User: What shape does this take?
Amino acid sequence: MDLHGQRVAVVGGGVIGTLHAYLALRAGAEVVHLERDLSPHGATVRNFGLVWVSGRRAGAELALAQRSRDLWEEIAREVPGVGFRANGSLSVVRPGPEADLARAALGLPDAAERGFEWLDWDEARALNPVLIGEYEGALRCTRDAAVESRSALGALRDSMLATGQYRYEAQREVVAVSDGGVRDHRGEHHGADRTYLCVGAPTHGILRELHEGVGLTHVHLHMVETAPHSSVLSTSVANGDSFRYYPAFEGLRHLLGPQEPEAAAWANQLLVQQRLDGRLTIGDTHEVPSESEFWSSDAAYRVIERAAGAVIGELPELERRWTGIYLQIGDRDDPRLYYRAEVARDVWTVTGVGGRGMTCAPAIAEESFSD
Assistant: This one.
């Protein structure tokens, strides 16, 4: 794509917006980037930073994730501060239905493309010695990777600012959308050849109006972070409950029995990712909250901490807990990958990516400029 001579405006400083800005700049555009807050603090910076190929639905979603994973690796060569590492993952499984499903996954038509391998328990522990417990083995995915979610966006912005073709305007809330641009709350109009509204949670004002009735669903996540672990986790780690929630395994879920009730109440799966500073980010839930709820539940955190302890042993001291909201198009099993629509002439909204935002952001941005 060639955007030389074009001006691109991007609204939203999260990973979707930042990757739109980065790829537009990379293609030769002049870019203005608007963010409502001083810096983004939504789902992007609250998540693991996982680039999770293993769980993506076969077909278009997997292709998007694979392309995105390759783009992240390219971008990291240009901006090392994104913290990309091709660490892969291990989904540890108990004897019985979980192990049966993991072995069946090796027979999926795209298993090799995902980098699936079966490891018995001794092999899994040799690869990631932090693992404990009595498990039968693990499904390894060599294509899974990670970026450093809290520092990646800042590193990308710094890289873009150094070009002289990029302007970052913080604390600018969009209050009007019209043909060819947007107006912020200070009354300034930002005109552009292309404008992208990449707002992860369009829940207020004009952005809410633009998205009413399109089928966006709120999803509530709970996560914790520990002090630095004394050991290095050589891979990302999941447990067998992850098979219940990732669409790659939807054709095999009949092999599983019911989920443990308390975990099921919060739609919980275990994911553990070690940040570059040694801290562990642990989660998470996929609960669809009541609109009247304003609280987080200690029960959800107990489920998360218990699941992590069963796989990696005693946790370092818990330093932080947090909740967050992300929006997805439709329900969890909806085949649509995200919502994109032209809402005014040369103004597009791109949202509803759900829990696949960090995984797929570069390829989603690339699609925006390719159509």
